[in-house]
Amino acid sequence: MTQTNVQTRSRSFFRKYTTGDIIFNVINYGMLALITFACVFPFLNSLANAFSSNHAIQTGAVTIFPVDWQWDAMKTVLGDEQVIRSLLVTVFITVVGTLLNLLFTVITAYPLSRRDLKGRTFFMNYMIITMLFGGGLIPFFLLVKALGLLDSIWSLIIPGLISSFNVIIMKTFLQNIPDELREAAVVDGCGNIRYLIRILLPLSGASLATIGLFYAVGHWNSYFNAVLFINDPDYYPLQVKLRNILLLAQMDTSLETLQQQNDLQIIAESLKAATVVFATLPILIVYPFLQKYFVKGAMLGSIKG
Amino acid sequence: MDKAEVHVKLGPFRKEIKKNYDLYLLLVPGFLFFLIFSYIPMGGLIIAFKDYNIFKGIFASDWVGLDHFKEMLDIPAFWQMIRNTLTLNVLSLVIGFPAPIILALMLNEVRAKYFKKISQSLLYLPHFMSWIVLGGIVYNLLSPENGVVNEIMRQIGLPEIYFMVDKVWWIVAYTFSGVWAAAGWGTIIYLAAMTAIDPHLYEAAVIDGAGRFRKIWNITLPGIMSTIVVLLILNIGHMVSIGIEQPLALTNPVVTDVSEVISTYIYSVGIKQGEFGLTTAVGMVQSVINLILVLGANYTAKRLGNEGIW
């Protein structure tokens, strides 16, 4: 973060800590540590549950470490053909969807980043209006239906092909690349498209990674569109499958109030946790690598251009 | 692309097209995309004024005027979901809005680089999870039988609470799970605003004998005030719109009295029960109020001397 600048400067200034500072620091660090822990604890708990026996979970012995270590739940999840199928669906929409998202976002953002393009304001307004007002769910649903996309994987990719928000992030980034670069390229006989491919794109790695991550996380987590558009269980993405497994949990809770809980419901605590972990793991794996990009991207997104 | 241009001065426009024809070609897919997936659904709003018949299609269906809107005002569920939408949104705003500000102020006081980095990374994490995962985790944590929260309460001798089936506790769980999911990510923008504060101000304050709290109160907070105002106004602008994923992930049959919001109503009555006309009318009311709120919010932001949202 750009924070470091301020930090180093002020650090040299505060070389001497007063008692007040020390108390402040202890409380501040302590509370932050606590809040951070509260943020991660639920994930650690699920992870621990996924590898604990149902009995241990039932007795409330599991917190952040697995009790009675066992792989059974994970094996059941991995052995479930439908889970694997829905994983493949999700991987497909994430990979293909994100690549198409990036392609169409860049080709929309690039002309809009050119201050010399006539009609640019018109197009920007045309796009921004869609962020402010929409037809709502029903007309959108009927449109996708009319296009014949129901029960097709493409219904999860095409209706979300371009996000105005990400176009604006990309456009702002491209605008910040000095125009002299293009002038020099034009003198050397470089056309618009070639300039985009050969010069701009290689310079845009960080912002492509950022908006790529935003799109990819969106696809990976996409749930509601799939519920709307997909009825065929063969094409359920992972989140829908996950939801179906977790729905059991909800039934449990409502039954418990009615005092109708019986042993049949106890089956699957670790199974539910294992499914959550299974659906989360890929994000956790790429997360540390992409972190440094998305902070920059989020800030870029907050500054409109 | 710019139609006014075509009629007024054909010459320069043609020249422009010729010079940058490739740029205009690049805009064609985007133009078509927004036309099809944003503008056509806006046109689809006429369903709100029609007795939509699947076999006749949108245009051939009979006009019914404002019947759907009248019907909407007459159903008790309408007022209930308006009340729920406002309750959940206002609570999320009151609790959820200050949370990232306080968190950012705390993070900004941290000098240990690694502590700060690790803490931030972990705070951002819930933002990247789907509400299905978060909902599953919330149910798991709060389960009366084997949830950790109730286990702790038993340990310290408190009675167990059926969080997700008690209407009041459900609202509490909804609000706080929203804070949990969003607060960390929300700090980014405030931390960015804090880096723009002139460090000399802090040095001057120290010379004047200011302690840590004084500096936060008199320098940091005023320094991010314009950001706070813009974000607050933006949030108020979104008061009637509520995403569907959080309510859908957390709801259950026992608490629908408090959990049914506009978006879930449109989904369950519109899509599932096929009441297209009525729910399009509901959606249209939502869109219009939203538009008014956002435009009003932007106007207010500009009046207050802030930059506005666009």
Automatic annotation (TrEMBL), chain A:
Gene3D superfamilies assigned: MetI-like (1.10.3720.10)
Q: Name one Pfam family in it.
A: BPD_transp_1
Record GO biological process: transmembrane transport
Keywords, A to Z, come to: Cell membrane, Membrane, Transmembrane, Transmembrane helix, Transport
Q: List residues of the ABC transmembrane type-1 domain.
A: 87-290
Query: Among the entry's GO cellular component annotations, what is one?
Result: plasma membrane
What InterPro entries does this protein map onto?
Answer: MetI-like, MetI-like_sf
How is this protein positioned relative to the membrane?
A: Multi-pass membrane protein
Main location class: membrane
| TM segment ranges | 21-44, 87-110, 122-147, 153-174, 195-217, 271-290
Q: Which PROSITE patterns match?
A: ABC_TM1
Localization terms from the record = Cell membrane
Please state which protein family the record places this protein in: Belongs to the binding-protein-dependent transport system permease family.
Listed name of the protein: Carbohydrate ABC transporter permease
**Native source species:** Paenibacillus antri
Automatic annotation (TrEMBL), chain B:
Where would one find coiled-coil regions in this protein?
A: none
Q: Which SUPFAM superfamilies match?
A: MetI-like (SSF161098)
Give the transmembrane ranges: 21-40, 86-110, 122-142, 168-193, 221-244, 276-297
Domain ABC transmembrane type-1 intervals: 82-297
Which Pfam families does the record cross-reference, listed alphabetically?
A: BPD_transp_1
Which InterPro entries does its entry note? Answer: MetI-like (IPR000515), MetI-like_sf (IPR035906)
- Tell whether Transmembrane helix is among the UniProt keywords: yes
Annotated signal sequence range = none
Q: How does it sit in the membrane?
A: Multi-pass membrane protein
Which keywords has UniProt assigned to this entry?
A: Membrane, Transmembrane, Transmembrane helix, Transport
Gene Ontology CC annotations of this record: plasma membrane
What CDD domains does the annotation carry? TM_PBP2
Q: Where in the cell is it found?
A: Cell membrane; Membrane
For whether the record's keyword set contains Nucleotidyltransferase, the answer is no
The protein's predominant localisation is membrane
Q: Name one GO biological process term.
A: transmembrane transport
What family is it from?
Answer: Belongs to the binding-protein-dependent transport system permease family.
Q: What is this protein called?
A: Sugar ABC transporter permease
